[in-house]
User: Which sequence fits this backbone?
């Protein structure tokens, strides 16, 4: 039996993490937000061999997926996205014609596990606080420890580069807001009221490039275009991530 030396444990963590972070300085795709759309986009990009770095400001992954609907950790998925659940090997049940339910934990677990197996570079507890724009194109993300913001410290950030930066930050479309503020281009209309049927279609059709080098997926799409919200039906989030990946792959 190997004697367990605490210094070796610390050293293993520091060295491994720093090597992974160094590996993530120059990137093809950087996804901001580890909610359902960001995780689905990562899955379909990785599947096609695109390297992906995902930055998540929270401790735990999943964004709004983990809490299901009003903390009932069940989500509804419609017929058009059932193929994705099958592909991810997520168990689901038919509720009635066109409506299926699954555990938000099973969906989150499957997305994360499959992504990590394919080499996703996932960094939690890091916040994207700004973007790098050169020659009118978004070319990177400005990052800092989330704890810096929580403690209201004044600490300068670091930068990672991106060929494709994806705003998957949810209802607030935080990254598009940053680009709007810095470029003075009007990019955000603001999310509309609840209308699940419309919102689920529009979130998919509206997914795409918002500014050169910057893409929107998931709820940030609806915030950008002024589309409605949809509540705890998640097929649109998965399909938006899938569409985002196909657009980036086409553009490569
Ligand atoms: O909110 P979120 O789950 O976004 P989404 O993928 O899915 C929306 C649904 O959960 C739900 C819905 C669908 O029925 O309406 O709300 O569009 O995940 C967004 C993630 O982005 C992280 C945040 O912590 C969350 O996990 N995030 C937000 N801003 C930043 C960020 C930032 N500046 N830097 C890093 N992560």
Assistant:
């Amino acid at each position: 039996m190997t004697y367990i030396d605490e210094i070796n444990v610390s050293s293993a963590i520091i060295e491994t993490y720093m090597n992974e972070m160094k590996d993530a300085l120059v990137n093809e795709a950087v996804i901001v937000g580890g909610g359902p759309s960001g995780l689905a986009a990562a899955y379909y990009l990785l599947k096609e061999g695109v390297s992906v770095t995902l930055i998540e400001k929270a401790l735990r992954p999943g964004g709004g997926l983990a809490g299901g609907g009003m903390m009932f950790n069940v989500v509804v998925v419609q017929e058009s996205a059932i193929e994705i659940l099958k592909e991810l090997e997520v168990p689901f049940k038919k509720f009635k014609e066109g409506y299926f339910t699954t555990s938000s934990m099973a969906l989150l677990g499957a997305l994360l596990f499959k992504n990590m197996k394919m080499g996703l570079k996932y960094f939690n507890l890091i916040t994207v606080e700004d973007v790098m724009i050169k020659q009118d194109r978004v070319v990177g993300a400005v990052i800092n420890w989330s704890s810096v913001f929580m403690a209201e410290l004044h600490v300068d950030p670091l930068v990672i580069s991106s060929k494709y930066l994806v705003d998957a930050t949810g209802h607030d479309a935080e990254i598009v807001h940053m680009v709007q503020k810095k470029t003075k281009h009007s990019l955000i209309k603001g999310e509309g009221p609840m209308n699940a049927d419309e919102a689920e279609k529009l979130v998919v059709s509206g997914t795409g490039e918002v500014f050169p080098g910057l893409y929107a997926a998931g709820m940030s799409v609806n915030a950008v275009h002024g589309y409605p919200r949809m509540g705890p039906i998640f097929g649109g989030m998965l399909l938006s991530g899938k569409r985002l990946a196909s657009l980036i792959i086409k553009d490569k």
Notes: The chain has one domain: 24-251. The longest helix spans residues 6-23.
